[in-house]
Amino acid sequence: MKTYRFKLESVLNFREKMEELLKKEFSAIRGELKKEEERLEAIVDLYKGEIDELLEKGELTAGELGLYRDYMARLKDDIEEGKRVVELFEKKAEGKKEELLEAKKNKKTLDVLKGKGLKRYMEAETRNEQASLDEYNSNNSRKGVFEE
Fold this sequence. Notes:
Elements: H1 9-57, H2 62-143
């Protein structure tokens, strides 16, 4: 009995490798997104802490007030930039997720085809084996060799 060979096995292997590559890329993007979210959160916490500290201090000289104003403006700019970076990584992650889902769908299609082909092959092999057994029994019963 020869073994079943799926004609599109190389395509299936390629799609499996592509899916694995996309999983790694998606995971890397998600890791970067998480880092950027944490970085943004740290800047926001720093900004809030500085506001609280400023309110506790009470009186400030004109020079200190100018320094605080510039520093707080810089923190606000950093927060806005952080939000843009997070949004960019969210879009990248969403795009990679779509690619990954498409790759999974393509691989699943070939998996289903392979399964159906294997099922047809096994059914044909079973029919062939049954036909061979029937022929053998028929030949042996005509010769009187077959004993019940």
